[in-house]
Automatic annotation (TrEMBL):
Record-level Gene Ontology MF annotations: 1-phosphatidylinositol-3-kinase regulator activity
GO cellular component: phosphatidylinositol 3-kinase complex, class IB
Protein's organism: Champsocephalus esox (pike icefish)
UniProt-recorded name of the protein: Phosphoinositide 3-kinase regulatory subunit 6
Membrane spanning residue stretches: none
Superkingdom of origin: Eukaryota
InterPro entries, A to Z: PIK3R5/6
A GO biological-process term: G protein-coupled receptor signaling pathway
Length: 718
């Protein structure tokens, strides 16, 4: 009787889990993303409610990987490979029970066979393999490292920390929505108690590593009975054991398990002497806790720099003591004048420094050191597609995870802020040696089809074009993240219902955390610089240098009314085209060709507007390009060109009104000339201006174009 029962339950459990997996994979390949993220979340909650099902779930996912590999050999279809890999990783890191080593070895062998696949599938498989190998040699290490970093727990042997900054665009977030999202995201911060977290980590690591040799309920009672200093001591012992085991590899597994056994016995023996006792059936919850989240409306561009600089400098002592000594004095390269400077304090208290220096000299300048230049080169090389992620392991840098909420406009603002950060770092390192900066994007729209101010050239042609791009190159992003915006917009109605606590619905928080932990592959979205020459009432024309990521729209204000009349007449009855005016702009651009040297010059007739959109290489034939559409009163003159750089000049003293990334807040009027080209990464300008010793110019080996790296689940190799 006992045998039949034990045989039936696993069969029933596996059947139910298999149905969940098949439905999830089927929905992830569809066109609509309304319920996809919810299906993944339901499977995740089932795992948290019954951790024992993780073993069966891993077996099913391994079988699914085998099935997908056989399908690839027959049809060359890579569908569902990424969703299965990320689901597998999520189960491994969230499993609260001991996974048999033999099962882990089976997973590892299956992943090895996926390394022959093209990128990005092999890249994600390799990343998952590294995590599996960590769990084979050091069970519980993934959980411990993730929680200690996210919760900023006190640790002597693994001092790296993480912080999550969620920046929302005030153009999209109304006051009620901002309050609702803030309450929802920051509610988890009140539940973060360091001693409780340390007890949870001890419970999880010990029961994962010791398996049947650990009595979970008894351990939970013992941990609750211990004083906080004793818990802290055992916590540090386990952290040290994990780090030593990871350094030794497979040879350190036996010693690691012995050390866990000693810690387990010490906790049980210490709890017998004093402390309260829990109910005999009580077991601590070891589910993955939410990280601390800092939410704010992104009103000023400098806010991002201030947040990152404060985070970097407040933890600089634990990252690099030598860097602090090097910052105590900054030497002028040409004069020998030494002045003390605390970069971190200046970076936070005065992000924009327009004041004249106390000591100045004509043609004097301050260059960053050679060591700083080489650090920037190394950082740039590691960011290149195809570089090994192992280069980024144990770099001794904290991690800042920046999540932006909004539509295309917030990514335009992020692009400009990111370019500004790179420009500052090229002059003097403050963040690069201390922080890994990871950028995430969750599309949220207010649903208003027209937010442009009156008279602005910006018109809504789809304010989520970049999220659509990311969804096309990453189906798992499309399933889980593109569907999250609707849930965020509905928080206002839920907040009005006082009977429902923000913590009762964890869907948004769980999905956000899954994105932060599993979204490790960047999609590099190209940035473009635009030099805007504006006519001045007095003196020479003013030049403004800007950056955009997706969209530039320009029109001639005096022809807007003609365009409106023309469109109305065309809708009634087409008439013979009439030439209202001649050439109003001249155009010079480089035609996309094999040589990339063919320059085309010409004039555009009867043009009332120009729309420039970015087409990343991920969606083209391997070349980042711009699609430039000329809008004319006469449809005969409508045209589109494809280029990577273009110059547009107005004729007959006319001017343009220019809007960047569909953001009316970034509108420029009285524009006479536009020079658009791929944005160059400021850190690539690393050759010294003056040096007595010949230095190799590494910049010629780097991709000098600057891209915005948005973290996704798949990533794109260009």
């Amino acid at each position: 009787m006992m045998d039949s029962t034990t045989d039936v339950r696993p069969s029933t459990l596996e059947s139910s889990l298999n149905n969940n997996i098949q439905v999830l994979l089927k929905e992830s390949g569809g066109q609509h993303a309304s319920q996809k993220g919810m299906l993944r979340w339901i499977l995740q909650r089932k795992l948290e409610a019954d951790p024992s099902c993780s073993v069966a779930l891993i077996r099913l996912l391994v079988k699914e990987l085998k099935k997908r590999q056989e399908m690839i050999q027959k049809t060359q279809s890579f569908t569902h490979v990424i969703p299965v890999l990320h689901t597998l990783y999520s189960v491994v890191i969230k499993s609260g029970v001991m996974i048999p080593t033999s099962l882990f070895q089976t997973v590892y062998d299956r992943l090895m066979k996926l390394l022959i696949l093209p990128s990005p599938y092999s890249t994600v498989a390799r990343s998952t393999m590294r995590s599996i190998k960590m769990e084979i040699t050091t069970p519980g290490s993934l959980y411990l490292r993730t929680v200690t970093a996210e919760q900023n727990l006190r640790k002597e042997h693994h001092a790296l920390q993480e912080k999550v900054f969620v920046l929302a665009d005030p153009a999209v977030f109304s006051a009620p929505l901002e309050a609702a999202v803030r309450a929802h995201l920051e509610a988890c911060n009140f539940l973060r108690d360091a001693p409780t977290m340390e007890r949870n980590v001890l419970q999880r690591v010990l029961q994962t590593g010791l398996g049947m040799n650990c009595q979970s309920s008894r351990l939970a009672q013992a941990l609750e009975a211990l004083e906080e200093p004793v818990v802290e001591t055992h916590f540090q012992e386990v952290v040290l054991a994990v780090e030593k085991s990871l350094k030794r590899g497979a040879e350190g597994r036996a010693n690691y398990l012995n050390e866990l056994q000693h810690v387990y016995r010490d906790i049980l023996s210490a709890s017998k002497q004093d402390g309260p006792r829990l109910h005999p059936g009580s077991v601590r919850s070891t589910a993955m806790p939410f990280p601390g989240i800092n939410f704010l409306l992104w009103r000023e561009e400098e806010d991002l720099w201030n947040l990152l600089a404060h985070f970097a400098c407040s933890n600089s002592a634990s990252v690099d003591e030598e860097e602090k000594d090097n910052r105590d004095s900054v030497r002028s390269r040409d004069s020998g004048i030494v002045r003390d400077l605390n970069d971190c304090v200046d970076a936070v208290t005065s992000p924009v420094r327009n004041h004249a220096p106390a000591i100045s000299r004509r043609n004097g300048y301050k260059n960053s050191s050679l060591a700083d230049k080489l650090s920037l080169v190394k950082e740039k090389m590691e960011a290149c597609p195809g570089s090994s992620p192992l280069l980024d392991e144990n770099r001794g840098r904290h991690t800042a995870r920046v999540v932006v909420l909004g539509d295309d406009r917030v990514l335009g603002r992020l692009s400009r802020a990111y370019h500004s950060i790179r420009k500052r770092e090229s002059k003097h390192l403050i963040l690069t040696n201390k922080l890994n900066i990871r950028l995430y994007y969750i599309p949220v729209t207010d649903g208003d089809p027209s937010l442009s101010s009156t008279g602005s050239p910006c018109q809504d042609g789809g304010t989520l074009s970049l999220s659509s791009l990311l969804g096309r190159v990453d189906q798992w992003y499309n399933s889980n993240i593109n569907s999250l915006g609707a849930a965020i917009s509905k928080l206002t109605g839920k907040q009005a219902n006082k009977s429902e606590s923000p913590m009762q619905n964890h869907y948004i928080l769980d999905t956000l955390c899954d994105y932060l932990r599993c979204g490790t592959q960047p999609v590099n979205v190209p940035l473009y610089s635009v030099k805007i020459t504006r006519s001045g009432s007095e003196g020479p024309p003013a030049v403004v240098e800007e950056v955009f990521v997706s969209h530039l729209e320009a029109d001639i204000p005096e022809f807007r009314h003609l365009k409106g009349k023309s469109s109305k007449k065309a809708s009634v009855r087409p008439k013979k085209p009439t030439k209202v005016f001649g050439a109003v702009i001249s155009v010079s651009y480089t035609k996309i060709s094999l040589s990339r040297r063919q320059v085309v010059d010409g004039e555009a007739f009867m043009i009332c507007g120009v729309v420039v959109t970015s087409e990343p290489a991920a969606l083209t034939s391997g070349v980042n390009r711009l699609d430039v559409m000329f809008d004319s009163l006469n449809p005969v003159y409508n045209s589109t060109i494809k280029t990577q750089s273009i110059t547009i000049r107005t004729l007959e003293q006319r001017t343009l009104s220019v809007c960047l990334d569909k953001d009316s807040r970034r509108t420029y009027t009285d524009v006479q000339r536009l020079d658009i080209a791929p944005c160059l990464d400021p850190i690539c300008d690393i050759s010294p201006r003056r040096s007595l010793v010949p230095i190799v110019d590494f910049s010629k080996y780097l991709d000098k174009a600057l891209s915005l790296p948005i973290q996704t689940f798949t990533g794109v190799t260009v």
